[in-house]
Amino acid sequence: MKQPILVVGGAGYIGSHMAKMLVQSGHEVLILDNLSTGFREAARYGRLLEGDLADTALLERIFGETPVAAVMHFAALSQVGESIREPARYYRNNVANTQNLLETMLRHNVRRFIFSSTAALFGEPEYTPIDEQHPQRPINPYGRSKRMVEEMLADHDSAYGLRFVSLRYFNAAGADPEGELGERHDPESHLIPLVLQAASSRQAQIAIYGDDYPTPDGTCIRDYVHVWDLCSAHLLALEHLLADRESNTFNLGNGQGFSVQEVIDTARRVTGRGIPADVQPRRPGDPAVLVADSQKARDTLNWKPRFADLTAMMEHAWSWEQQKGTAW
Ligand SMILES: NC(=O)c1ccc[n+]([C@@H]2O[C@H](COP(=O)([O-])OP(=O)(O)OC[C@H]3O[C@@H](n4cnc5c(N)ncnc54)[C@H](O)[C@@H]3O)[C@@H](O)[C@H]2O)c1
Ligand SMILES: O=c1ccn([C@@H]2O[C@H](COP(=O)(O)OP(=O)(O)O[C@H]3O[C@H](CO)[C@H](O)[C@H](O)[C@H]3O)[C@@H](O)[C@H]2O)c(=O)[nH]1
């Protein structure tokens, strides 16, 4: 029997795409998700076990019954503003529950782990593009919770031989190129889905959070990376670990930044709709520019993003919004 990959958080945005790519690549997939921010309909690939990482008895049962080859860990709370208001929930779910998972894995001799980390652990950038050596000074509990897990992973590697790959995504965007899956957060906070909701009149307008940043057009610059390309990095990371290579950490982005204004302009072009926009005050905690240096992932994992172009990300996200968005 093939040893399955356990995708924790596989009913969420990125995890659901990952489950699809794994199945298409010939892997058995088991999803563990509590459906707190994910959706049953998104877990279309693999077998869904509905449950919570806080439930250590359930974790014990899963690893006791199934010879898991590796774990991909997407489950987390990931709203920056919420993390400032309710840090305890973030440390509980993102840190303590990850520790439950690691301890159960190690008890069952499962030693391959791929972690969804984030650019938020760098805080306000000191230079750009941001490489893996950039200082880590997260400015909110969400970013701190992810940095803590990275530190835990390094300690578990030295002490217990855990082999991990930590992937720090910049701004995940886009949707399944085949149109079966897409981004769904409720409430939605991310720029691209909100711009497209405004294009389809599900929102009256898009708010631009600040146009007085030190950037060419005054709006914040981000490095958008296609969800399918994030998944292909995970697949390469899995091959890396299955080949018994060492633990490693990678920044994932395209190395090219787009301003909020450029994102809105691209959405207007792709959708052919006007999309009203309104400048509002800055959102607390938003750095002016976040752009990744992903050379290490290209060199070590041989990662080659297929959809580096913002227009392609927007087209896939728009086709998802048109197909599913209006039904929610
Ligand atoms: N979306 C981005 O731009 C982005 C950027 C950087 C990092 N990340 C990280 O990537 C990961 C996935 O992000 P996403 O946008 O797909 O989020 P998401 O909210 O869509 O998915 C997270 C999934 O985890 C599940 N989950 C949460 N807590 C759980 C628990 N205790 N037990 C079981 N399941 C649980 C949720 O129900 C959901 O299905 C997160 O760890 C996030 O921090 C996302
Ligand atoms: O309605 C909106 C929503 C967003 N923005 C702006 O658009 C940019 C992108 O914002 P998103 O909320 O889409 O993404 P973030 O850059 O805030 O956050 C993403 O990257 C972070 C790392 O810095 C975290 O990992 C987080 O989980 C991930 O969603 C920001 O400048 C934001 O101010 C707007 O102007 N209007």
What characteristics describe this protein?
globular; 2 domains; alpha/beta; about 325 residues; three-stranded mixed β-sheet; binds galactose-uridine-5'-diphosphate; Rossmann fold; UDP-galactose 4-epimerase, domain 1; 10 helices; binds nicotinamide-adenine-dinucleotide; about 15% strand; seven-stranded parallel β-sheet
Q: Biggest sheet, open or closed, and with what strands and sense? A: 7 strands, parallel
Backbone CA Rg: 19 Å
User: Element order, helices and strands?
Assistant: EHEEHEHHEHEEHEEEHEEHEEHH
What would the average pLDDT be, to the nearest integer? 97
Going by helix content, strand content and strand pairing, the class is: alpha/beta
At CATH level 2, the architecture of the largest domain is: 3-Layer(aba) Sandwich
CATH topology of the largest domain: Rossmann fold
Residue share in helix: 25-40%
Low-confidence parts, pLDDT < 50 over ≥5 residues?
none
Spatial separation of the terminal alpha carbons: 39 Å
Share of β-strand residues: 15-25%
Net shape: globular
**Order of strands side by side in the largest beta sheet?**
3-2-1-4-5-6-11
Number of helices: 10
Give the cofactors and ligands: nicotinamide-adenine-dinucleotide, galactose-uridine-5'-diphosphate
Number of domains: 2
| Annotated CATH homologous superfamily of the largest domain | NAD(P)-binding Rossmann-like Domain
Let me know the number of strands: 14
At the first level of CATH, what is the class of the largest domain?
Alpha Beta
Subunit structure: Homodimer.
GO molecular function: UDP-glucose 4-epimerase activity
Protein name: UDP-glucose 4-epimerase
Keywords: Carbohydrate metabolism, Isomerase, NAD
